[in-house]
Every structure is written in structure tokens, then in C-alpha cells.
Design brief:
By secondary structure, the chain is α+β, with helices and mostly antiparallel strands. The chain has a domain of about 100 residues: Jelly Rolls. The chain is about 20% helix and about 15% strand. It is built from nine helices and eight strands. The protein has a four-stranded antiparallel beta sheet, with no helix packed on it. Strands 2-7-4-5 form a four-stranded antiparallel beta sheet, with no helix packed on it. It starts with 8 loop residues before the first helix and ends with a strand.
């Protein structure tokens, strides 16, 4: 016989509730399918769970490291552990070693100075009686042992420049004996030293006992070498020369040039040279005198035309010599030299 089962809305709701499908759980399906994660998509855990997975598995202990002691570290609640990234203080004395900034520490490879006490301890360390072979202590002890009184004395003998010592060829047994005394027994640099006889005897008189310049003049005078005679020699050594000139416009009396051939000495120079220039034809005279007052004609001649720097020489027996031209209205220039 056919039958019909009729279900009401309340029957359906009651059946779903019996299966655990409540109104609260039904709310989880109120979002669109597009808001759900796609198949295979990674999903972030909500804090604080995701922070606890923030390290690679390779940083965790492996199976061999999992001991009962290590397992005990998990006996405390997770809340008692430091949060990820939180600073943790090390137990003493380890935290004290980190109590300064890294910048205050020496850079890798930097040289570090010892404190004063450490330095003093190094320098005050006694040299051991038997230092280790090849050590600095052994080398220092060897030099210390070598510095005996005798050797120190020998070193004192090096207190002078090598250049003050004799050369190899001068090194004889006798000379070597001169070094038997310490340098300190020798004269200091710059000190006066007495010469051995007979050399010192030659220096045994004061300079004041020697002849003075006045004494020398007296002795020369006794032999006829006087100041006046020396002056005459100076005059003879000095060649006499005199010159003069006149232009045509100013020439109203001709031109005369005189010369003391002895240079102030009562003696004539025997050779006289004349250089003359005339702007036109002219006549000339060469004359000598013993007193510069009375003149004697020695030569007279004429030029028929102008001449320039013409030379003529004369043998002279008079102290004074002059060269002149009475021609006027022309350029004239004379130079007279006493040569010998």
C-alpha cells in the first residue's frame, strides 16, 4: 500500500542539529567561495603561532640531540619563554663581559698597548741564570757578561775620531805604544799642548820681542830706503799722460798740452808719444823744459790737410814736455804719454 512521509521545516532543522550542524557553524559558510584559500595556497598562522615557526628546521635539534635533559626544557609553559626577538640577559659573569659597546674594543689586527703595571713588570723581570737557548734573554746575558771592566776601559779608548789615528803603514810597535793610555789622559780638543824640544824652544819668545813695523822702517832708512825715495819709485811706475781738445768755434789761440814726464820726480822719461788730430791744415811744435818755465823747441812741422789720431814719438831729455799748435779756427785734439 503506498504511503507518504511528510517532513516539516522544524523536522529538518532538528535533524541537522542532531548531527552538530548548528546555526553558529552555518555562519562559517556565509562567505563567498572566492574568499577562501585556493588549493595549495600557504596560509599564515595567527600570532603568536606564526612567530614560533620563524626559524629554519635546520636550526632545531636533531633526533640524536634529543635527550631527557633537553626534553625537560619544554616542561615550562610556552608563556614563560622569551618572545621572539626579545633581548635576554646572560647570567653572571657572562653578561659583564658584554657590558661595553663593540666600538670600544680593538679592531681585528690592531696593536694593543700594555697597561703601566704590565710594562713595569716586563722591564723589571730579572735575567735568568740560564736563559733558554736562542732567546732574547740569552743574547742580553751574553752581552752583559762581555762588558767586563777591562772591555769598558778599552771602549773608552775609542773616544776620538778615526781620522786622528795613524794609517796602516804608520802602525808600528813603537806607535802602538802611544795608545797605552786612556783617551781621558789626552789633551781635550782645542787644548794647548807643549811641543817637545827642540820645537818648543823655537816658539819660546813672545811676539812682542820681535821687530815692530817702526823698527823695520828704521832699518830700511839706515840703508837709504826712505819714504821719499819709495814715492819716487811709485811715480816712475805710473805712466804719465795728459790730453786736451778745442773745437773750431772756440779755437781763438790754438791748443797746448803739457806733461811732467817725471811724475813729480827730478828725472825725465826718455820716450814720449804724441797722438794728435787736426780738422784742417795746421802747424805743430814739440818743446822741452827743465823748470816748466823756459821752453826749448825740439821739433816743428806742418800738416797740409786734416789728420785724425796720428802718432809721433820723441826721445826726451827734459822733465817737462809740451805739444802745441798756434793754428786757430779749427778742431784740435792732443794726447801726450811718457812711456819710459
Amino acid at each position: 500500500m503506498p504511503f507518504r512521509i511528510s517532513l516539516t521545516k522544524g523536522d529538518v532543522q532538528s535533524a541537522l542539529t542532531d548531527q552538530g550542524y548548528t546555526a553558529t557553524r552555518a555562519g562559517y559558510l556565509d562567505a563567498a567561495i572566492s574568499s577562501r584559500a585556493a588549493p595549495g595556497a600557504a596560509m599564515a598562522l595567527a600570532s603568536p603561532y606564526d612567530a614560533r615557526l620563524d626559524a629554519a628546521v635546520s636550526t632545531r635539534a636533531n633526533g640524536a640531540d634529543w635527550t631527557a635533559a633537553r626534553a625537560a626544557y619544554l616542561d615550562a609553559a610556552i608563556s614563560s619563554r622569551a618572545a621572539p626577538g626579545a633581548a635576554m640577559a646572560l647570567a653572571s659573569p657572562y653578561d659583564a663581559r658584554l657590558d661595553a659597546a663593540i666600538s670600544s674594543r680593538a679592531a681585528p689586527g690592531a696593536a694593543m698597548d700594555l697597561v703601566a703595571a704590565a710594562k713595569a713588570a716586563l722591564w723589571n723581570e730579572a735575567i735568568p741564570g740560564t736563559p733558554t737557548a736562542g732567546s732574547f734573554g740569552e743574547e742580553i746575558k751574553r752581552h752583559k757578561d762581555n762588558l767586563t771592566t777591562t772591555r769598558v776601559t778599552n771602549l773608552d779608548r775609542l773616544d776620538a775620531a778615526i781620522s786622528s789615528r795613524p794609517s796602516g803603514t804608520d802602525w808600528t810597535a813603537a806607535r802602538a805604544g802611544y795608545l797605552d793610555a786612556a783617551i781621558s789622559s789626552r789633551a781635550a780638543p782645542g787644548a794647548a799642548m807643549a811641543l817637545a824640544s827642540p820645537y818648543d824652544a823655537r816658539l819660546d819668545a813672545a811676539v812682542s820681542t820681535r821687530a815692530s813695523p817702526t823698527d823695520v822702517d828704521t832699518q830700511l832708512g839706515n840703508r837709504g830706503v826712505t819714504t821719499a825715495r819709495m814715492a819716487k819709485l811709485d811715480a816712475l811706475l805710473d805712466r804719465g799722460i795728459n790730453s786736451g781738445s778745442v773745437t773750431a768755434a772756440a779755437n781763438t789761440a790754438g791748443l797746448t798740452v803739457s806733461l811732467d814726464t817725471g811724475g813729480g820726480v827730478d828725472r825725465a822719461r826718455s820716450v814720449v808719444e804724441v797722438r794728435y788730430t787736426a780738422g784742417a791744415a795746421a802747424s805743430f811744435l814739440a818743446e822741452g823744459s827743465d823748470d816748466n818755465t823756459t821752453w826749448y823747441e825740439g821739433d816743428s812741422f806742418s800738416e797740409a790737410a786734416a789728420v785724425t789720431n796720428k802718432l809721433i814719438g820723441y826721445l826726451n831729455t827734459h822733465r817737462y814736455f809740451r805739444f802745441r799748435s798756434p793754428t786757430t779756427g779749427i778742431d784740435l785734439s792732443f794726447e801726450v804719454r811718457a812711456l819710459l
